[in-house]
Write a structure and sequence with these properties.
three-stranded mixed β-sheet, about 60% helix, 2 domains, Penicillin binding protein transpeptidase fold, globular
């Protein structure tokens, strides 16, 4: 009797476990669709809602707290694109992504040139567009894994599909890091020059754009020779592109 009772208990336990396993498998199968739906909702909402922070900001803050730097604070103040000096958006495009009004998130020609350059050795060259940088900095984590690159591509497609070009550039100008813990044009303008982003000069805008490759290494307020040269180049490029009117060529 004892052996039969034990066998019955095992069988009853197995019967109870089967529905749980089925539910688990259903959840695993549904997970990719739920993540896709969540990402679409995220991007759709942020077309109209200004993000209170980015994942890069959050990671930077946690990193500093983790190292015991409890006084560290992120500087971030949102400003709409119309509240920024017109020289800033075109400076960012001239510096980072001159095909921004024309591509759909990926600059194929720039990617081809970067691969050709990197294959020859020497300093690695990137080919990320402004749209890709928004996808990476707003939603994802830093790193070079294939998973992150795949998610970056997915979010880039979503952003380019759901947002107008002006919104992509607006978000970029607000979440880009222009100094250690200084995110966005307004926070940078206040911290570096004590004025609003609307009152930045063309030179100020070019210097902010010039530090973007390494904002914790270079200084927009006290630029060294590299930043000065790059800022001058950015101003020339902005003029050659046609100034702020060039940005109206995108959708």
């Amino acid at each position: 009797m004892g052996a039969e009772a034990g066998k019955d208990k095992v069988e009853a336990g197995a019967r109870r476990a089967r529905p749980r396993r089925r539910r688990l498998w259903k959840l695993l199968l549904l997970a990719p669709f739920l993540l896709v739906a969540l990402s679409i909702v995220q991007v759709a909402l942020l077309r109209f809602i200004d993000p209170p922070f980015s994942t890069v900001m959050a990671a930077r803050q946690l990193e500093q707290w983790g190292s015991g730097n409890w006084d560290y604070r992120i500087h971030y103040q949102w400003r709409d694109l119309e509240q920024m000096t017109p020289s800033l958006p075109i400076s960012l495009v001239a510096a980072e992504d001159q095909q921004f009004p024309h591509h759909r998130g990926f600059d194929v020609e720039a990617i081809r040139k970067a691969r050709s350059h990197n294959a020859e050795g020497g300093r690695l060259r990137g080919a990320s567009t402004i749209s890709q940088q928004v996808a990476k900095n707003l939603f994802l984590w830093q790193g070079r894994s294939w998973v992150r690159k795949g998610l970056e591509a997915w979010y880039t497609v979503l952003i380019e599909t759901v947002w107008p070009k002006s919104r992509i550039l607006e978000v970029y100008a607000n979440i880009a890091e222009f100094g250690d813990g200084v995110y966005g044009a307004q926070a940078a303008a206040r911290k570096f020059w004590g004025k609003d982003a609307a009152h930045l000069s063309a030179g100020d805008s070019a210097r902010l754009a010039a530090v973007l490759p390494s904002p914790r290494r270079y200084n927009a307020r006290n630029p060294g020779p590299y930043v000065q040269r790059r800022a001058a180049w950015i101003q020339r490029q902005a003029r050659q592109l046609g100034g702020h009117a060039y940005l109206g060529q995108g959708r």
